[in-house]
Amino acid sequence: MTDEELIAEVRGWLAANWNPRDKVQAESFGRSPYQSFLEKVLAAGYAVPSWPKELGGRAMTPAQGRLIEREFAAVGAPGAGQDRHNLWANTALAYATPEFRDEIVPKLLTGAVGMCLLYSEPGAGSDLAAVRTRADLEGDRFRVNGQKVWTSGAAIADYGMLIARTDWDVPKHLGISFFFLPMKQPGIEVRPLRQITDEAHFNEVFITDAFVPAANLLGPLNGGWKVLQTALAYERSVMGDAARGPRSGKGSPKGDGALVELAREAGVLDDPLIRQEIAQVTAWKILNRMNNARAKAELKRGTSSPIMSLGKLAMSRILHQEARLRTLLLGADSLLEGPDHPRAEDANFLSLNAYFTSIGGGTDQIQRNIIGERVLGLPKEPEIDRTMPFREVRSG
Amino acid sequence: MTSSLSAEELDAFLESLKRLLADRCTEGDVRRLMEQPGHHDADLWARLSEMGVPGLLVEPAHGGLGAGPAVLERAMEELGAVLAPTPILSTVIATALVQGLGDEAVSARLLPGLADGSTIAAVALTGPAAKWTAESVAVAAIPEGNGWRLDGKAAFVLHASAANLLLVVARAPDGIALFEVEAGAKGMSVAPLPAFDRTLDLADIGFEGVAAVRLSAPGDGWAVVEQALDMGRVALAGEQAGGTRRVFEFTTGYARDRHQFGRAIGSFQAIKHMAADLLLESESAISAARHAAEALADGAADAPQSISLAAFACADAYVRTTADSIQMHGGIAFTWVHPAHLYLRRARADAQLLGSSAAMRERFVQQLGG
Fold first, then answer.
1. The pLDDT of residue A26
2. Residues A80 and A179 in one domain
3. Cβ distance B370 to A264 under 8 Å?
4. How many domains does chain B have?
5. Which chain A residues touch B287 with a CB distance below 8 Å?
6. What residues of A are labeled active site?
């Protein structure tokens, strides 16, 4: 099939099956409001075009898949390109038993089940391999006990992708298993987690004598660390830039001149120190765009780019510095908050929410380790807990 | 797109430039030139000229390669990486000044020599205030007989010792104008300056009733000067980006090789995290320099803003990287024989030439609408 034929086919299909007026505010975690449409997308082979036919794909090339994605994006239709983006389905495809895969993957591709991530714990943040939630085999199921944190969508999820310790007498990376844990059961309690921004986008999940069928194990028993790496890779490729801007949105001019406008409104644009700061923060933002554009171009030319690893550090620096600058512009007005003080609300929110980027998904310090080790080839620090049985590792 | 060379031609050009520099501009060569008056390597300049480096901006009709600023910037990255002591920066500014005049007779007379490297130009531009602005021009020009006479001072003139062409930016009754002065003209005093970057040939030039030929048309010509300065800033940004990357590379290399406490010092997070931060500096400098050069080559409306950004981003990245490099190396980089301080000296010089980082940030804010 030529590209032109494919494009014509997809356009025709979308014209017949997608009504842009159906568009609703999409939820990223709960069940999809587009279920019936997504079933049609899957049946037509557009959901996972690069997968083999028996799994709902059409054995297409990645380039053809992107053509389909582009046509879907052009009319705002959901559901294409899930072979690249659907973290849940890709992880299940790679590691679930054939029986569980055939049961769960179609549901994941059609949004028939809601999902959440059960990775981090109070004692296992950056050091994820230190998880202490335990899963003990009892017949054909595992009994699960422990506590998870930073879980989005836990209250509405049908399954959670869970890492739990299944062997305490081996080094920490070797005793972890990966499960699809059913969330709607008595042993699971979800509590919203109030953040420093006074919002609650995440939850704590308390797991007390909950059960997961042994059939829901992904990968081998105690082989969960490798499954997790696959899942994390998909998550990173999807997350891209998760940073959010100021909260109110109303009081915030846009574009590269935004900080100039804010300084003018605050009557401090003639302060030479502030002008220097505006130049610096704005430059960092533009440099980040330039870096991303160059990384993309280099990727296209077939050369890998070290720039890809830098986005998070760059973004953290921008957000924290912009928060400081906005506070500087406001002076004592930054004492206030609430809808009547949108600029203060923005500056104060940003100064707290910047940590979402500099801590979330691994702290900036961990990211510097990753850059140093994987990009620059610097040796790792010796890890004293890498070889000892996890039972003897001090953590928490 | 942004250059007359295809991607393959550009790669081949840069590859042969790298080979030439690896062969003819080693650290030993740089150190030898530091000790010589004028710091000019005539042989290196001749070989660069054979490759067409001085004439990258000059159109083929006047003997150049006509490759434009984007290729110039890439060449400057290579020259900057090895601290090449050449008069390329003042060649670029002189070329852009002549081209900016748009006078075919002047172009036909001056550009071929600039393109083939036989003309080495010095440009007397800023006065002792050293801001590279119209206000800081401190040479006055008044009509005298059939020509003009110049009086005043130019400061921090690059490559005056090796130059056989002197262009002077002076204040005439009708505004800023460009003049040509014969080498060794009567009333002119060239006072070499002791430069902190010892590869740099810097001089103050005094003018007392110096006879000069006016090159620019009547009316204020500052816009032409500013354009030429911007071309110089693009070249300088390339030099800074190339130097930053080279310093970053040898510093991380040292962090992998040097062992203390029984392990590579790069395994310590104190060093590793500095390296990660410097990668961001280094890559951002390259992005900024290349973007500015391409914007200028494309005649993009935001080119001047991109140039301001590149000017301070690259200057700051180079200074920070060279400074941190010394700290990361430890004692070895506190010695004269280690090259780190040569790069720090160049970085500190480059951060002042053609306008300071702070001045470029101020210009950038104005371009943002402030």
1. 53
2. no
3. yes
4. 3
5. 287, 290-291, 293-294, 307
6. 235
